[in-house]
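Researcher: Go.
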Amino acid sequence: MSSKNNFSNLSKELLKKAVKLDELGSQIFLLGQGISTFTKNEQIKLMSVVISFTGGVLLTLSTVFEFIQNYFSKRPIPKELNYNKLLGSILGLISAIISTKTIFDIYDLHLPKEDVEDTTID
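Model: Structure:
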């Protein structure tokens, strides 16, 4: 009986954290999108992409917490919906990574490659 209560408490705690992360992630994501919309400066646009990406990461983390909370819930939503939500969130994060990489490629923002001495012994 106590293990059920532990899962129940864990579930409620995860849901509280998921809701907070969802709100924070949404606000950060919208901030990044707003900055991107209203500026023409390339450097600021790049910063806005990173801000939006951070918001997307928080939203994905929130979805993972909700997924776990639903797993322990007494009345969970159907597994198909829960898995689809998680899959959609992960796909969104992957597309954000691809978009961020593309923008960094467009503006040629790569770390400089340094020559490394060959230290192998013959």
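Model: The two ends are 67 Å apart (CA to CA).
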